[in-house]
Amino acid sequence: MYQTRNTPRSFWHFLSLTQPVFLRYLHGFIAALVLSQVITSNGIAFTTDGTPYGPLALAHITTGLALLILSAILTVYCITLRGLRHYFPYLWGDTAQIRRDVRTLLKRRLPEASTRGLAASVQGPGLGAVALVVLSGAGWFMLWLLDSPLAPALRQWHVTLTGLIEVYIVAHGAMGLLHFTLWYVRQRTGTD
Description:
InterPro entries: Cyt_b561_bac/Ni-Hgenase (IPR011577), Di-haem_cyt_TM (IPR016174). This is Cytochrome b/b6 domain-containing protein. The protein has seven helices and two strands. It has helices spanning 7-16, 21-41, 55-82, 84-87, 96-106, 118-145, 151-189, and strands at 45-46, 52-53.
């Protein structure tokens, strides 16, 4: 049985059960940058013509461009590591594990994360949603630099997509913490 004395160390160990070291660091770094994006986005000031200004705007744009690169690395790495079918099994008509996970949920139990299961099937579109947010942000930035009349419309799409991804991030984080908490309690009590 794993010793659970230090909660941050226990959380790191818990993540090691499903994520290689590189993925854990990349995942954590992206989570921190996304959190900074949410914080800075609420403080960006705009001129009447839609030009962002101030230190929060610069931080948001800089971090957003870094996230564009890191999200691409994360997506390619995850798909290379586990394959498209892991995240999108229903595209192949493979829904057996998803159905088992739903039956487990209906029994008021939390299913373990598994290949081609419910958690993986939610993570796949989550990777796509992150890609849409960073691409719409980068697209807005490029159109804004080019002084395009389409920039405000793409900025609005970016804001809308960001709202949707914020809901996903909260749910994803909450489910991860719930899985960790249940695992942690089982480790402490010696039950399974």
